[in-house]
Amino acid sequence: MVREMVRKPAPKPVRRFTQPVDGEGWQVLIERLAREGGLRLTPEQLQAWNPHLAYRPPSNPLTPLDIVFLEPPR
Amino acid sequence: MFDLIIRNGIVCDGTGAKGELGSVAVNGGRIAAVGRELGDARQTVDAGGLVIAPGFIDPHTHFDAQLTWDGLATPSLEHGVTTVIPGNCSLTLAPLRPEHREFLGAAFRQIEEMPKSAFDAGLRWSWQTFGEYREAIEKSLGINNAPLVGHSLLRLYVLGLASRDRASTPEELRALADCLRACLDEGALGMSTSFCDVDHEFRPVPCRLATMGELGALCAVLGERGRPLQVLPEFWDGDLLCTRIDQLAELSIRHQIPISFSPLFESRAMPGLVARALERLELQAARGARLQAQMQTRPIDMTFDLHGSNAVFSTMPTWMGALLAGPDATRKAFADPSLRAKLAAETDTSPSPIALDFSLAKTRLSFARGSAASDVGRTLGELAAERRIHPAEVLMDISLAEDLDARFTASDLAHDDEAKIAPSLLHPQVQIGAGDGGAHVARFATYGDTGHLFARYVRARKAMRLEEACKRLSADIADFWGIPDRGRLAKGQAADIVLFDAATIDRGPEELAWDLPDGGQSFRFVRKARGVREVFVNGVSVHREDSGYSAARSGQWIGGR
């Protein structure tokens, strides 16, 4: 029974997102996204789509568990 | 011959079945029989028609520190809570090396808003390992303690202060897994983590420097034993929360563990958030995820002074800057005309802080002892209209006049729409929790959510049957968290029993208590219980409404091998 339930596909993400690599700041993240996924994004775009990260003080940088949305709210 | 019989009560056994007139017999701290005619006992309690229910379980507390000086977790116990789960949100007091006590203490106090004087006076750091922490407090427990171990503590123990800066290496990850196994062996029920807390220096707590790979590896350890994970996600935003629900569901399915996150609450500042989260939880439950949101029963109120930062200003950078710079700088900022204007404007334009519907105009002055004392009880909006200035200027003027000691209370910040909340409290992917017992002690009283459930949702709104409410507070939580032999009134179960009056059970008004272990230097907000006649922990009476606490310390440690 459990096995049957697990086979159900995961729901589509509410928004496309990534998670930073350890030590990654905005610029390095953007460069990685361009290199790995061909995404051409600006810091302004990313920060506008991620106010939960953009409003943080410098003492609270991006961390590997953070969710960084790669598109605006739907 | 039984040790104890509680006779002549309405037995609500925690299963949700209709309450029946009957008795409960106890032997050796366990329930020996439930029925009508049970024979004789060395001690008999006449329930006089009151409800006999399983003791309530509070799944979200921060009693880690308080339990070292108060094994009763007062006043939770007198509300009928017989088991608490501390160690939520990645923070515990063990395992901890001596050189990290100062850092951990500062972080814990900042996040859970506990006074330094009480923390310093009450804590006698005599442990490093989880087992030693257990040994230090187990004998003085009057309430059952089922603590989690904090992910931040595991990282601090293994990586040292580097845990604040980076992810773990493969070797460290193996050590983290071993450390978690040791904590689970020595007394931790499960683990907790956080996706959003910051410490006293506004840096991420150590667990936030983990990768999803590290979190997954630790969940695999929990999965070896079917132990639970608790998580603090970004609860204030629908897209973020649903994304976290998806991630947590994958962890739950992959490692076959129960995961609960907290909080989830209704807010005018974020309409539709609860409905979205519940819909997502239902989708994931259908895939096999054992994932529940914790929801509190009480509305969210908050009292604050301007001695430091607090959540209602968290989206206002100028305010945060002024409040974090220290009292002298705060006073200077409030007296500077150009900064005052900027601060006032910021309260009008800033987004809602963490889904709270904060209005400065509706905020009341709740304490002043100087020239503003005559205005206590009035809103800043009323005072602003009278003085023809902005409410923020009233806030600053009163704070300056009172040397920053004035207190202000913002009421009904969220979770006050009972019609919307009621169905969620019965939702299968929701558990009643998120009460935060033992934390935020000078902001709001974290006690009496159980009484509030009966008073508002059972009696006043008739949104829930009495028996269902008992089940939600006992068996449902015990089952989800894997707490064995508790949560029901049935033969063989631990005799955690609460005797209460269904017609009057409630929480009392919020009041100040100067009972912290610092000799009256700081206070906490508490609420006394109403209508809870007697509370038994493992078959022993620990609190009676008429005589207060007994000398018994019959609480047990839940967790470990």
Please provide a brief summary of the model.
The complex is a heterodimer of chains A (74) and B (561). By secondary structure, chain A is mainly alpha-helical.
Could you list the spans of chain B in which at least 5 consecutive residues all have pLDDT below 50? none
Query: Which structural class matches the secondary elements of chain A?
Result: mainly alpha
Biggest chain-to-chain interface with counts: A-B, 27 and 37 residues
Largest beta-sheet characterization of chain B: 9 strands, mixed
Given helix and strand content, the structural type of chain B is alpha/beta
Query: The biggest beta sheet of chain A, please?
Result: 2 strands, antiparallel
**Helicity of chain B, as a percent range:** 25-40%
List the helices and strands of chain A in order.
Answer: HEHHHE
Beta-strand percent range of chain A: 5-15%
Q: What integer value in Å does the Rg of chain A equal? A: 15 Å
Assembly state here?
heterodimer
DSSP strand count of chain A: 2
Shape of chain B: globular
Specify the helix fraction band of chain A.
Answer: 25-40%
Strand order of the biggest β-sheet of chain A: 1-2
Unreliable spans of chain A are: none
Report the portion of residues of chain B in β strands: 15-25%
Tally of separate helices of chain B: 18
Kindly state the number of beta strands of chain B.
23
Cα-based radius of gyration of chain B, to the nearest Å: 24 Å
Q: What's the N-to-C terminus distance of chain B?
A: 33 Å
